[in-house]
Amino acid sequence: MITVDTWAEIRRLHRADKVPIKQIARELGIGRNTVRRALRGEEPPNRARGPRGSKIDPFVPQIRALLAEHPRMPASVIAERVGWSFSPSLLRERVSELRPDYLGVDPADRLSFRSGEVIQCDLWFPETRIPVGDGQDRILPVLVMVSGFSRRIEALVLPSRQGGDLTAGMWMLLQRFGGIPKSLLWDREAAIGGLGRPTVLAATFTGTIATKLRLAPARDPETKGVVERANRYLETSFLPGRLFQNVHDFNAQLGVWLTERANQRKVRSIGARPVELDALDRAGMQSLPSVAPTTGLRTRVRLARDYYVRVDGNDYSADPRFIGRFVDVHAALDEVRITCSGEPAERHDRSLRTGQTITDPEHVVVAARLRAHYRAPKPATVRSHQDGHQVQIRALSDYDALFGVDFTTDTTTKEAR
Q1: Domain range for 197
Q2: Is the pLDDT of residue 405 over 70?
């Protein structure tokens, strides 16, 4: 078979220069029949080879049988089942070609959003560990929220992924957006809708701010692809090369980067910058409610004798005067407040360390004073007998001293013996 260059030269010599076929064959060193075929064909010669056989061809029937029964079976397992001992990449390529015949194809549409329609939410876990004090560092979740219309990104480091912290983070970021969208889209985060329906806490939050909570289908990240791409953007463009002193420093650097870089860039899919569409997006949202929703970690416990309450793995002291009474504990993103029937029992800065005991020195003083008063000898009381005589009632400790009983050592004194 001749090359395309030879085919073109044959046609030029014969049609333009009127060179005879015999002379063309002699000059180009090819047969006259080859010249005739080149002149008859209107298309250049096709040098593509036909399909060739492969080592994997005899294994295809077995592979198809396995995929028909188990469409998601990994290629490595298929290799073991069919006895494949050659190149793994060759088998993976053929399995990838055959799998859609049995698994089906799940197309992902490109969606468009109206102003104020939806804000997509997700948790991003950066690999960089953040110092939290006393030599400890942790990988903390970052709540990322992105408007579907303007592609504006807002993000915030959270102390935990518990429902109270998630609602507190959402409320803080919604205040930055300046409005409430018609819906909030989440994946099936355990504290939001791990069972496929909104949790009581999440439903209470969205009901208070009058918006709808939408949960993405299971194993379908494309549904919230806008925020997924934002997570990848943070991972590749914000995080590399940065050092952080603490959580406040992380949030400060992140806020500056979002304002000056991320929300100023031109987004190809919408052909505009987020800051250019922000006002139009906010116009399609509801205004922020006049009363803030209930957020944060909340619990109600009876204050024990050691006058500490536990919040997210740390113990915080409360006023010992409220021992035995129910106290309400509210942990916001940055502080822990303890109250008893509306009366303040203590306020602490929230610690992001783990296994810590946070004590107010004043509580130790009050506890010592209460303990000394409790252990002080009680004066004898007088009670009237039935016949009118006054009978003195002594403290039990007086009888212990009289009979030489010492309960601190659980032994009797020599005098009693």
Answers
A1: 118-283
A2: no
